[in-house]
Amino acid sequence: SDPSSSRRGAFIVFEGLDRCGKSTQVARLVDRLEREGQKARLQKFPDRTTAIGKMIDAYLQSKAEMDDHAIHLLFSANRWECAAAIRQDLNRGITVIADRYAFSGIAFSAAKVSRSAEMGLPFDFCLQPDRSLPLPDLTLYMSLPQEEATQRSQFGEERYETVTMQQATRKQFRLVAEEVKKIHGGTKWIDVDARGTIEEVEERIKGSIGVLTDGVIGRVGELWV
Ligand code: TMP
Ligand code: MG
To answer: Pfam families recorded for this chain (predicted)?
Structure first.
C-alpha cells in the first residue's frame, strides 16, 4: 500500500512583527509547493472575509472601537471558525500554511498599554481562548533586529503599526516562544533570520521546514494542551 496514505498534511505557521516579510514568504512557499505538485493551501489570520473578520477589519482600520478583551476574543473566534476546516484539510493530506495564528493573538494583545493600567491584557487571559485549537507542527518566527525593522518600517495606516506597539509586541513574542517550548517542546518553534534578500530568507525557510511538507505521522495536536 501507499506509505504516504498514512501521513497527514503538515500545519506550518509563520509569525512575526508587521513588515518582516512574512506574507511574501508565505506566498512563495505555497507557490513552490504547488509547482512541486504538493497539496498545500494558505490560511491568512485574521481572515477578514468572514462576518467576524469584517468586525476585526473595521477595528484595525479604526473605523470601529472595541474593548481590548472583546477584540482579543474576536481574533480567537476568527481562528475557531476556521479550525474544523484546517483539521479536515490536514487529515486529507493537505499542507496548511498559516500567515499568523494564535501567537500573534497573544503577543499583540498582551503588548497593549491601556490607559487605566501600565500593562496590556494579562498574558494568561490572552492564552486561554485559543486552548485546544489545532497545534501547528512548526512555527517559523521571522526575526528582524530592531534596527532593521526601524529602517524597513514603512508602516501602513493600521492600528498596531507604530514603533511603540511593535517594540512591545517583540518582547511578548519572546514570552510566547518560551511558552511554546515549555508546553510543546523545543522543536515546534524556530526563529528564522529575516534579514537579507527575499531569496536568502526563502532558502533559510526551506532549510527549516525540511521534509515536513512530505507529510506528518500522527494526529493533529491541541494548542496549549
Ligand atoms: P495582518 O497585517 O497580518 O493582516 O494582521 C493585522 C494586525 O492584527 C497585525 O497588526 C497583527 C494583529 N493581530 C492581532 O492583534 N491578533 C491576532 O490574533 C492576529 C491574527 C493578528
Ligand atoms: Mg498588517
So the answer is: Thymidylate_kin
Residue 110 CA, ligand 1 centroid: distance in Å? 13
- Structural domain contains residue 224: no
Ligand at shortest distance from the CA of 45:
1
Ligand 1 centroid–CA 16 distance in Å is 10
The range of the structural domain enclosing residue 134 comes to: 3-214
CA distances in angstroms from 159 to 33, 108, 146, 156, 176, listed in the order given: 33, 11, 19, 9, 21
Strand partners, 186: none
Domain count, the chain: 1
CATH number at residue 154: 3.40.50.300
pLDDT of residue 181: 98
Q: Which residues surround ligand 2, an ion (CB under 5 A)?
A: 18
| pLDDT at residue 1, as a whole number | 45
Q: Is residue 33 part of a domain?
A: yes
**Is 75 touching ligand 1 by the criterion CB < 6 Å?**
yes
* DSSP class of 9: P
Give the closest ligand to the alpha carbon of residue 120.
1
Q: ipTM value of the model?
A: 0.99
Q: What is the mean pLDDT of each run of 10 residues along the chain (225 residues)?
A: 74 95 96 96 98 98 96 99 98 98 98 72 96 98 89 83 92 98 97 97 97 96 98
For residues 225 and 218, what is the distance between their CA atoms, to the nearest angstrom?
Answer: 16
Is the CB of 112 inside a 6 Å radius of any atom of ligand 1?
no
Verify whether ligand 1 is closer than 6 Å to residue 103 (CB atom). Answer: no
Is 206 among the domain residues?
yes
User: Please, which residues bridge with residue 177 across strands?
Assistant: none
